Every structure is written in structure tokens, then in C-alpha cells.
Amino acid sequence: MMPAATLFDAPGDLAAFRAPAAPRSLLRIGDVLPRLGIQRTTLYDWIKAGVMTPSILLGESYHSPAVWPSNEVDAIVNAIVAGQTKAERCATVAALVAARKRAA
After folding, report:
1. Alpha carbon separation from 99 to 7, 23, 45, 89 (Å, rounded)
2. Residues 68 and 23 sit within 8 Å (Cβ to Cβ)
3. Beta strands at 26-28 and 66-69: parallel, antiparallel or unpaired
4. Which residues, 6+ apart, have CB-to-CB distance to 93 below 8 Å?
5. Where are the beta strands (DSSP E) in the chain?
6. DSSP state letter for 51
7. What is the full per-residue pLDDT of the chain (104 aa) written as tens digits?
8. Distances (CA, A) of 68 to 14, 25, 95
9. How far apart are CA 40 and CA 37, in angstroms?
């Protein structure tokens, strides 16, 4: 996670919320929910609303585990702590998803 001092140095600056280039680990839903402090239904509502990144399936089957890169979850937590508006969080999510596609 990013040091607390950088969270508030430049309010509204999305650069402070960009995730590191590579995730440290992949998190299953049971790890993501407590980090965000929400329930499963809320997580999927947030994904649908564009304020949370979508999961990644680890296989091609419908039953494959869904995971989230830890750096993306950390970036969302930082955005929440900093009080980003819904529009700002949508922009953060869009940047994270774009970075994910570029890395692929």
C-alpha cells in the first residue's frame, strides 16, 4: 500500500491512486470482501456500477476461480479512504482496467 502522506498530497489527483505495475498476488473473493469491508452482493453491484474492477477467471470453465490483482484492490481501498467521488472512482477503475489490458 502507498504511504498515507501521499494519499492527501494532491487531492483529486488520480496519479496518487494508480496501482503498481505488477500485482503482488491474486486475491480470491474471500480475501477481497474483508479488505473492502463489504458483502458479496455489494461487490458485484460495485463492479456493475464501474467503481470496482471486474474479476479475472483463472481458467476457461465457468467453475474456474475468480481473482483480483492485489494492487487493484489496494488502489480501490486508497480511493475510498481518500474520499473519491463515484466519478473519480470510475476513472480510477478505467485506468486500472486499461493497465491490465496493456500488461496482457
Report:
1. 20, 11, 22, 15
2. no
3. antiparallel
4. 50, 51, 52, 53, 76
5. 26-28, 56-57, 66-69
6. S
7. 444 444 334 445 555 555 455 668 999 999 999 999 999 999 999 999 999 999 999 998 888 999 999 999 999 999 999 999 999 999 999 999 999 999 87
8. 20, 9, 15
9. 10
